[in-house]
């Protein structure tokens, strides 16, 4: 899938288009085909390395997602990488996200 990937800290010049493997939904996750993803103010801090708590490189910015699940349900939601809750894969174009409990 196509995505913007950040592999080093810096300004807009570090936002690099990349081909990444399609994510696969694991147990307790759903796969969402993303039609739009938002990059917000926190992403600018993640990109320049000043985000509180640090950021692990490489990463794909953008936590707001609009898309559809495989069964056609529409989804508008923030998607986060939850280190304490286990992996949640967040990638523009296709996301595997933790399902609400």
Automatic annotation (TrEMBL):
Domain Alcohol dehydrogenase-like N-terminal: 26-68
UniProt keyword annotation of NADP present: yes
Keywords linked to the UniProt accession: NADP
Superkingdom of this protein's organism: Bacteria
Matches recorded under InterPro entries: ADH-like_N, GroES-like_sf, Zinc-ADH_QOR/CCCR
Record protein name field: Alcohol dehydrogenase catalytic domain-containing protein
